[in-house]
């Protein structure tokens, strides 16, 4: 059972007797404010954070490990890809010949080549990847529900929130979906107040700006704040907040929004015009490239968890947009969308991003996670494509306390199944929380007020530097 002095539930209730006991702790140097502060930061004790921030680069659609970071050149025809592997800056790590710049930064990363699960549909696998919790079923119709777990960013905002004008977390430039919005991107049962700050604008567009962070013409901050205080008074008098948990969440969300509205620091972080053209060109003038540049600026401003989604949809017939899905093409030589779109964007943006973080001294304190919801079948199908394959795929991690130039686990000779040190998305989640200084077994309360751990996974100790 949880003790009031070492609580395991983020929503632990403190009885009057416990509070009186806590008041007596003052003679030992633990005053009531310090005691309550400790309760707010439960889950953070005993761990030293290796990472101040996480940038979660979600590769929606499912990138093929055989075309990127786990090539199988000795596999039979029909399994090996159309590209050759090349050496990288890290001993023993080979990558696709289409990624020569990326090969030069592999000495900065850890590759986990043994990630696996059983969800074959995008929405169920996407929820697993974005929350670290397996869905109740492998169903493409899986929709967002208070019964399902929240986003990583929402958990971080619940357990280790920032106080003041800078949001704990942000997500951009899309909310991902496949038919319906994929679960695991908002606060779910933790409440709306723990939703990430979501920006659904293209940061590569001319004149990119957030009018939400600007006051209405002719309205001062003091006047707006006075209006907010009046609204609180009316709400309290009508007892609105006593009746609706959702309303309580909106109340807190409004307060956060008001603080952000007053933040010059946050407005400056979103102002990409402050970056030299050379830097912006280096990242690539694409929504993904400029989003990663924006992510770097936000962690510099203090944001703890940034999610950058590669695409809004899984992909399709286009070779100029979309996620990593390769279905729908009938090309006898190659996968057109990979060669013409996915790999060129990855090649321009990923090495630029990691190098920029490193040169600025940010990489050691910023954990970068590059992963999709699953991989692709080792066997190339009759349409010269690869199908969904959650049984084995690769995740790339860098900075934030993980080893450099390291490979964890291995797939078998054809890249079909883990051959060594299998890892589940739960374990990636536990490792992220651990590196942020959050105990992975910290409990929160679900929609029916049951205590549940934020992760059922195990920390991947071998990848930690």
UniProtKB/TrEMBL annotation:
Q: What SUPFAM superfamilies does the annotation carry?
A: Alkaline phosphatase-like (SSF53649)
Matching Pfam families, A to Z?
Answer: DUF1501
The organism's place on the tree of life at top rank: Bacteria
The protein's name is DUF1501 domain-containing protein
């Amino acid at each position: 059972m949880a003790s009031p002095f070492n609580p395991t539930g983020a929503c632990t209730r403190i009885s009057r007797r416990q509070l009186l006991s806590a008041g007596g702790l003052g003679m030992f140097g633990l005053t009531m404010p310090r005691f309550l502060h400790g309760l707010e930061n439960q889950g953070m004790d005993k761990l030293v954070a290796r990472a101040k921030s996480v940038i979660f680069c979600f590769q929606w659609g499912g990138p093929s490990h055989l075309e990127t970071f786990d090539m199988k050149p000795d596999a039979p025809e029909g399994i090996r890809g159309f590209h050759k592997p090349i050496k990288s800056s890290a001993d023993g790590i080979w990558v696709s010949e289409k990624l020569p710049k990326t090969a030069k930064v592999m000495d900065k990363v850890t590759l986990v080549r043994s990630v696996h699960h059983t969800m074959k549909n995008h929405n169920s696998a996407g929820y697993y990847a974005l929350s670290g919790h397996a869905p109740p079923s492998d169903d493409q119709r899986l929709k967002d529900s208070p019964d399902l777990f929240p986003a990583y960013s929402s958990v971080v905002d619940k357990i280790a929130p920032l106080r003041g004008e800078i949001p704990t977390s942000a997500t951009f430039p899309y909310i991902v979906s496949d038919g319906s919005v994929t679960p695991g991107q908002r606060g779910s049962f933790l409440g709306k107040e723990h939703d990430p700050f979501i920006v659904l604008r293209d940061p590569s567009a001319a004149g990119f700006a957030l009018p939400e962070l600007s006051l209405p013409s002719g309205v001062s901050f003091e006047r707006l704040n006075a209006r907010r205080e009046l609204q609180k008074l009316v709400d309290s008098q009508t007892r609105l907040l006593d009746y609706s948990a959702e309303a309580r969440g909106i109340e807190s969300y409004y307060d956060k929004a008001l603080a952000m509205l007053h933040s010059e620091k946050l407005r400056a972080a979103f102002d990409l015009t402050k970056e030299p053209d050379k830097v912006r060109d280096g990242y690539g003038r694409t929504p993904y490239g400029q989003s990663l540049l924006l992510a770097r600026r936000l962690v510099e401003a203090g944001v703890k968890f940034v999610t950058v989604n590669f695409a809004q949809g899984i992909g399709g017939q286009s070779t100029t947009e979309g996620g990593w899905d390769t279905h729908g093409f009938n090309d006898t030589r190659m996968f057109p969308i990979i060669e013409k779109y996915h790999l060129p964007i990855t090649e321009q943006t990923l090495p630029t991003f990691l190098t920029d973080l490193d040169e600025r001294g940010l990489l050691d304190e910023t954990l970068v996670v590059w992963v999709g919801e699953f991989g692709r079948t080792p066997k190339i199908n009759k349409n010269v494509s690869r199908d969904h394959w959650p049984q084995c795929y690769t995740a790339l991690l860098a900075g934030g306390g993980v080893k450099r130039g390291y490979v964890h686990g291995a797939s078998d000779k054809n890249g079909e199944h883990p051959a060594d040190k299998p890892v589940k998305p739960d374990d990636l989640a536990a490792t992220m929380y651990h590196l942020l200084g959050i105990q992975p077994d910290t409990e929160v309360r679900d929609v029916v007020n049951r205590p549940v751990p934020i992760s059922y996974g195990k920390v991947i100790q071998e990848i930690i530097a």
